[in-house]
Write a structure and sequence with these properties.
Layout lengths: L6 E6 L4 E8 L2 E8 L2 H12 L8 E5 L5 H8 L3 E4 L2 H11 L7 H14 L5 E2 L5 H34 L13 H9 L3 H4 L4 H10 L7 H8 L10 H38 L13 H6 L6 H10 L1 H5 L3 H8 L4 E5 L2 E5 L6 H17 L1 H5 L1
Parallel strand pairs: 1-4, 4-5
Antiparallel strand pairs: 1-2, 2-3, 5-6, 7-8
Length: about 375
């Protein structure tokens, strides 16, 4: 920080009201503010009155985002975030017995920031396009999880009465599979299906990995003998889930296109002939083997500060790549890091997986 803070505050945020502890030369002060526009505004005004300039105030909080963080940073107040597990360790200084309440947590946050500021991470304002990219990237993850849940339900119902249908593909939630199922929802109707109808569906969805004749042969395999009403019940269940699957499939395509547009916008304009091209973060990341659109979006959205500052060690810790060493006396244990961003860990995993498949240098390492 350019200006050394003289006022330290800790905010124990909640859904209805926020407990604030202020520590200055006069000692700690505690106040409570409701979670609304007037309450947050009054809290920021009260903090600003404690010093001549907002730069002399430092605030600690457990979350690095949200309306409180944005309101404080908008007034020029330095905001520091800390992991809740670290805060739990600092709490032991004030109560070895493990007592916990909102007022105590606010005091622990303010006091720890005053004495151990190096354990906190300062929150930096992100570009608006990065904030938007992070939200769209998380939407894509949520939609994919919802699609997996719905697809598993379809797979389970098909397994009950129409298992040969699952041999068409490993993804029964695909649009073309649902279209084929709509034409032949039961084994009896599959026997009446023609090769021409299946060919038209495959052509409409641009499916070339299976032929119409091969698909028809799979669907006309001998059917299971099930109890009366089982096929009708499973068919009704799949019909209700299929509508949601089609909607989720459309939304995933829309979100992917929007993420692609944001990444291109974040990369900046292409260089003109005769001019040196500026190496943007997007350009550097996309040039690496194994890095695709989703991995780039996740890295830029979830670890923008580490990438911009080229903090290699911070990025390794955030992604869970850096191991954890526990050494005491003659014992030494190296364990996998669990305290990390799971979205970043998944992105790094797929980055490495694809790189080893298509790049000889990555495969050799």
């Amino acid at each position: 920080m350019d200006t050394e803070p003289i006022v330290f505050a800790g905010i124990d945020w909640a859904s209805t009201e926020h407990q604030v502890c202020l520590i200055n030369t006069g000692g700690p002060q505690q106040r409570t503010f409701p979670h609304n526009a007037d309450g947050i505004g009054a809290m920021v005004d009260w903090l600003c009155r404690q010093a001549e300039r907002p730069e002399q105030i430092a605030v600690s909080i457990e979350t690095p985002h949200g309306p409180i963080v944005e309101a404080l940073m908008d007034r020029g107040i330095a905001v520091f975030a800390i992991n809740p597990k670290q805060l739990d360790r600092f709490r032991d200084r004030f109560s070895p017995a493990g007592a916990k309440d909102d007022r105590r947590d606010a005091l622990v946050l303010a006091s720890s920031l005053r004495t151990d500021r190096h354990c906190f991470r300062r929150v930096e304002a992100m570009e608006p396009i990065v904030v938007e990219l992070r939200e769209w990237s998380r939407m894509a993850d949520e939609l994919k999880q919802e699609r997996n849940r719905l697809t598993n339900r379809v797979r389970q119902q098909l397994w009950r009465y129409f298992p040969q249908f699952l041999d068409l593909t490993d993804d029964p939630g695909a649009d073309w599979v649902l279209a084929v199922w709509a034409k032949a929802p039961t084994p009896l109707q599959a026997t009446r299906l023609t090769e021409k109808k299946i060919a038209s569906i495959l052509a409409a969805h641009r499916i070339r990995r299976i032929t119409a004749a091969g698909a028809l042969a799979i669907l006309k395999r001998p059917a299971l003998i099930v109890a009366p009403g089982t096929a009708e019940a499973a068919q009704a269940h799949i019909a209700s889930v299929a509508e949601r699957l089609r909607l989720v499939n459309r939304q995933i395509k829309m979100v992917t296109r929007h993420i692609d547009a944001l990444v291109i916008q974040l990369a900046g304009p292409e260089s003109q002939p005769g001019q040196a091209a500026e190496q943007h973060d997007v350009t550097i990341l996309r040039s690496l083997p194994g890095v695709g659109l989703i991995v780039v979006a996740t890295l830029l959205a979830e670890a923008p500060q580490a990438i911009q500052t080229r903090d290699y060690h911070a990025l390794r810790s955030l992604t869970g790549v850096a191991p954890v060493t526990k050494r005491s006396g003659k014992s030494c244990h190296v364990e996998m890091r669990q305290a990390c961003s799971h979205r970043l860990r998944t992105a790094i995993y797929h980055w490495a997986r694809v790189a080893t498949q298509h790049d000889a240098g990555s495969r050799s390492r």
